[in-house]
Design brief:
9 helices, Immunoglobulin-like, binds calcium ion, globular, Purple Acid Phosphatase, chain A, domain 2, seven-stranded mixed sheet, binds fe (iii) ion, 526 residues, single chain, alpha+beta, 28% strand, 24 strands
Amino acid sequence: MKRASNLNRRMLLRRAAALASVSVASAALGACEWPSTSRPKFSAYPFALGVASGDPVNDGFVIWTRLAPDPFDRTSVPADAVTVIWEVARDPRMEGIVQRGEVQARRALAHAVHVEVRGLPPGAPYWYRFRIAGGDASAVGQAWTAPAIGATLDALRFAVASCQHYEQGYFNAYDLMVKDDPRLIVHLGDYIYESSWGDPVRRHDGPEPLSLSEYRDRHALYKLDRSLQAAHAHCPWLVTWDDHEVDNDYQALESEDWQDPAAFLKRRAAAYQAYYEHMPLRRIAIPRASGMQIYQRSVFGDLVDFAMIDNRQYRSPAACRTKEKGGGQVVTAECKELFDDGRSLLGAEQERWLNGVFSRSKSVWTVVGNGEMFSRLFQKTKEGVEGWWTDDWNGFPTARERIIAAMTRTKVANPVFVTGDIHSFWVNDVKQDFRDPASPTVATELVGTSITSAGVPYDVFAKLLPDNPHIKFFDSRKRGYILCDAGRRALTADLRFVEDVRTVKTTGGSLAKFAIEAGKPGAVKA
Ligand code: FE
Ligand code: CA
């Protein structure tokens, strides 16, 4: 969600020029001949972008790093392939090493490495690092194996983050989050921003990225942030993206400014590849010409099923988009397309997959990691008629009804949506029929605020609350995240805020606490 558009003619010209020369990202991935490995001499410390782990399963997890002595100079890693040693230990001092291996960091993937560590016992903490033979070692990161599926798990603490505009603030929220010591960080998108607006406290590396190397630079800039690195090293992450990883408000192959879809596909492929290169993702996510699969399920014992969904790659074009407004806008009920049965936010295949997660989940909680607001947000236009924001689930009311019907039909236990995008805290009852306040609550939605990105105008949105009785809480004035404690009887959500993002300081606290009782959808103030 971005309210200001800063496109002008010069930018359009620049885009056209850059798109003409953009490389097809996935073509490079097909290459499987590795040039011989040399013992590289780096100009500087090669692990400057830190380490990360992700996607814990019951016998392993993904570990990630990228060799980048100078992240903005592609020649700073001299060889096409560099052997990187990875090590997993039982202790943070890396004394009791339980697994060690070698992996090639290849130029085709910006010398990023993703290792899927397997074969470890379930439900145990591990530490990991990377090394160059006879040379530097990375920082040590922490990961863990998930408990066996179905094994008793009494508690899981996870943090929910989204929307971290680099220019709009320092990532203080991550310092506070690390102090809260979550076992898992769930990121719901807008991990990078492609564009600039607002009042910057620091600057992006350049103008809006279009090519693979420009998206790589943008990711590298974010990854250089000390607070973000600390949060990645602290515990495994589950990630999905929203729009700004590519372009504001894009919809599958439709861009906000009506770029030619074939040209936009190339841009999107570049953005997706750079995202893959910088995230601790499984092999299934390796980008292909057709796209990149990041929706996935993660199961933690018998306590939590996570379904991380992809709200961007497969969605139908925004309802009633116009030449002037190709992205999100508020439309009225006169937009008949809005109610078309054939429209989908997830795409048919992913919708079926999500229904399958609802059917199969045997966990106490089923958490859907969701890009944009799921709950109905009824707003009145200037003319006083009903209006709907087309870029979130309000732009896909029939698709939302199908998801709600699937939750009811499958009797999935305790569904909870955790949501990003809107730069504000919301606690919502998901109603079987949002039009009827007396209708049963079938799920709960917790919307986290942004790590830094400027909040939506408080007065404008606070005024909508009387027309939306299923909304229990709203505040857009704070930056922060949600700290969730899932237990067998209840899931508590602490809406955590930082006092300031315009200076580097880690003071903040709890704005409000809510609890969802197992078996009783809907959060109540704790
Ligand atoms: Fe955002
Ligand atoms: Ca967004």
